[in-house]
Amino acid sequence: MDKDLLRRQIVDEIQAEFDTKLRQAKRQKEQAEGELEAASERWRTEKRRMNAEIDRLEAALVDAKAAAARKQPQSDSGRKPASPDPLAVARIQEAADEKLKKATAEWERERGQLKSQINRLEGAVAEAIARASNPLRSTQPMKEQFEIELNRVAQEKTEIEQAFLRAKTQWEQEKLKITGEMVKLRRAAQIMGQPLPKEDKPDVNPKTRDLENQLKESHAKWSAEREQLAKEIHRLEQVSRHWDIERRQLNDHAGQLQQAFVKAQAQIQTYEAAARAPKPSEAQVEQLRREKEGLQKELQETRRAWEAERQQLKTEIERLEGQIQRVSESQDRVSKEIVDQLRKQYEQRLQEAIQEKNQLAGQLQSANALLQAERTPRNAMQTENSGFDITAIEAEVSRVESLIKEVVALMDDPDTELSTIIRKNVEKAELDAYLKGIMFAFGRSK
User: Fold this and answer.
1) Is the N or C terminus of the chain more exposed, i.e. has fewer CB atoms within 10 Å?
2) Whole-angstrom Cα distance, residue 73 to residue 110?
């Protein structure tokens, strides 16, 4: 009983110790994986947010450029071009700088937390390795103790079996000796002519009775010892089988612990490599910083260009205002003759321009009349021979013209984005080519 209790206690202690270490390793592994996944998710969210902010800033810059390009008048209009609001640009830049600073500070804080957690996990793992070392080496003393106990039990079994054989041999020899003495006594009694004594008669030889009783007692004693030895041998065989099963279980458990330890060590090495490797978030922050610097440079260049153009236009306006003022001051000194002469020259040039315009209009009208006269017979012939539906063609032409008008109206809208204007310009060119093809096919002019 003491051996069984000791063995069970040792096995329970070993099992509890290994289960505790395995649970600690699994808990640390799950905690590290959870922290890594949470950090990855946070950085993916931050990356998406920064990309969205960059897209919004780029879209705002493109919209500002497109609005400025649409609102800029012709060079000879004399009006001051609309420039972007410097306050709005400064606010956008300050907001972008503030967001970038917040993201950088948050990244540094998260990076410090992750580094501290990694250092803490490395210290815990190193401490666990120092305490437990290799699970096979830690179970080796227990295994040797179990093997020593098993060898001792096997030796006891062998000694008991040998004692049983010796006792059995001694009993057989004693039995043969007593049987020989009984045979000798019976033969002596027959030779002397005396009848053989009976057990229930009082004249039985006391020595013979004592020998028989002694023989029976020895037989019962050796039978009891034999049964006891047989039970002990059976029990030892069961104990041996049980020890073999437990030894195999301990070996299997030690192998599983070794595999778990190897996996944990590989995971720790992976985490160390990931910690030593450059973080993708750092590269993203650097890229965002470069993009931000590029946007700032572009905004500064645009601002300098607008400032230079504004200064140039301001100088031109001041010059024109000075000329107007000088003209208004010298207007009183100009004589009426000079004014009349200038007016006559202006009217003469105007009349000449009107005459040239009328001549060109007449020439254009005559050319159109000749061209229409030439196309009319051919159109009639084509209409008779083609067999096309003129109504459907007219409806298609009307539909294409309405589409072209819609596209032009959308392009003239100041709120339309630059990408939409480019796409609609391509669509307008395609519709114009399609309409020109229809006109050319049926001999019409747009």
Assistant:
1) N
2) 52
